[in-house]
Amino acid sequence: MARVTIYTREFCGYCARAVRLLKDKGVDFEQIDAGMDAARRKEMIQRANGASTYPQIFIGNEHIGGCDDMFALDRKGALDVMLGISG
């Protein structure tokens, strides 16, 4: 299964939705709270090519975007493929 990293912040509804989808799929992921940590926020923005909204999600080294982007991939059936989940 692919390595997933998600940068989040507290009280973020989009972050909660994204985390819930990953949990529902049984995916192990690293959640990094970058909301109040300037160094982690800078790291997130650099990795996400300037994107500064929450969450920012990575599968392996590939930046897939935010919550809406991940749900769009899921609707197309591409998310499970990227995550290495067999149907």
From TrEMBL:
UniProt KW Endoplasmic reticulum keyword: no
Keywords from the named record: Cytoplasm, Electron transport, Redox-active center, Transport
SUPFAM superfamilies: Thioredoxin-like
UniProt gene name: grxC
Glutaredoxin domain segment(s): 4-64
Function: Has a glutathione-disulfide oxidoreductase activity in the presence of NADPH and glutathione reductase. Reduces low molecular weight disulfides and proteins.
Keyword S-adenosyl-L-methionine listed: no
Stored NCBIfam families: GRX_bact (TIGR02181)
Family: Belongs to the glutaredoxin family.
Lineage of the organism: Bacteria, Pseudomonadati, Pseudomonadota, Alphaproteobacteria, Maricaulales
Protein name per Swiss-Prot or TrEMBL: Glutaredoxin
